[in-house]
């Protein structure tokens, strides 16, 4: 019988692709605020890839599960204390990390707010949110500062450390599937939201424009109307606020 001690053992890490929806105030008060899909990156403070961009993440400790490690690293490197975690994939290419044999269990994380800070004990120099746009053959992050090129479903970027370009690409596809098939869009929203707050991120993530009437019919059984309104700061009639239907929670 083979003894497990006869085999080399890899280190195990958790990497997290965190998605959030940000609002940008409209310059013209007659217009609604714009919504943007963003992901959370860190600037590495240690080698390897010191000074480069990467996903939040770190090594599994003996006393925790991989999910606990993901949440701990997210809190230490970005200040996020709670998030909806979605298991993504396991990345195990032998040469994926120059430090040695390191397997990464990746997660997509969804949060309704986008504030961050970086713990002093973290190996991250800083953390920040960047906008993300998905194209047919590239992902544009931070207005062109970071371009992830996609060829045959493989993703590349020389400004992102490790294989994190591929993880981001895979996480985007997972998010799109979850939004279309499992109503996880609500985990990106605050408790109360307008129809536009729901419709705009849905269209951004799925890449599909929806007629207002059709979209309302599609989500009518998934939301509940409240007696509250959102003025939105623009010169238009206040918008009715809704919440997720209790039957969908």
Describe the structure.
The chain is built from four helices and twelve strands, in the order ββββαββββββαααββ. It is elongated, with a radius of gyration of 20 Å. The strands form two sheets. Strands 1, 2, 3, 4, 5, 6, 7, 8, 9 and 10 form a ten-stranded mixed β-sheet that branches. The protein folds into two domains: 173 residues, Nucleoside Triphosphate Pyrophosphohydrolase (Alpha-Beta Complex), CATH 3.90.79; 55 residues, Orthogonal Bundle (Arc Repressor Mutant, subunit A). A hairpin with an 8-residue loop joins strand 11 and strand 12. It starts with 10 loop residues before the first strand and ends in a 5-residue tail after the last strand.
What's the CATH first level of the largest domain?
Answer: Alpha Beta
Helix content: 10-25%
* Biggest sheet character: 10 strands, mixed
Order of helices and strands: EEEEHEEEEEEHHHEE
The gross shape turns out to be elongated
CATH overall fold name of the largest domain: Nucleoside Triphosphate Pyrophosphohydrolase
Q: Detail the poorly predicted runs.
A: none
**Cα end-to-end separation:** 48 Å
Structural class: alpha+beta
Number of strands: 12
Continuous helix count:
4
Average pLDDT reading = 88
Residue fraction in strands: 25-35%
Number of domains: 2
CATH superfamily of the largest domain: Nucleoside Triphosphate Pyrophosphohydrolase
Overall CATH architecture of the largest domain: Alpha-Beta Complex
Provide the gyration radius in Å: 20 Å
């Amino acid at each position: 019988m083979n003894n497990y001690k006869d085999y080399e053992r890899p280190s195990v890490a958790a990497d997290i692709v965190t998605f959030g929806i940000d609002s940008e105030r409209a310059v013209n008060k007659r217009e609604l605020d714009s919504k943007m899909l963003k992901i959370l990156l860190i600037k590495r403070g240690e080698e390897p890839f010191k000074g480069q961009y990467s996903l939040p993440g770190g090594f599994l400790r003996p006393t925790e599960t991989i999910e606990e490690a993901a949440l701990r690293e997210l809190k230490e490197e970005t200040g996020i204390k709670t998030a909806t975690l979605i298991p993504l994939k396991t990345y195990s290419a032998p040469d994926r990390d120059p430090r040695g044999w390191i397997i990464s269990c990746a997660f997509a994380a969804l949060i309704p707010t986008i504030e961050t800070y970086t713990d002093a004990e973290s190996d991250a120099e800083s953390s920040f949110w960047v906008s993300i746009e998905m194209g047919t053959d590239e992902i544009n992050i931070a207005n062109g500062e970071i371009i992830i090129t996609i060829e045959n479903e493989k993703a590349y970027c020389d400004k992102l450390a490790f294989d994190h370009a591929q993880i981001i690409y895979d996480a985007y596809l997972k998010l799109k599937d979850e939004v279309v098939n499992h109503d996880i869009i609500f985990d990106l929203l605050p408790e109360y939201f307008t129809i536009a707050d729901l419709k705009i991120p849905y269209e951004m993530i799925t890449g599909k424009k929806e007629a207002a009437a059709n979209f309302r019919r599609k989500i009518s059984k998934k939301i509940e109307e409240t007696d509250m309104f959102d003025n939105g700061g623009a010169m238009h009639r206040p918008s009715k606020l809704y919440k997720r239907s209790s039957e969908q929670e």
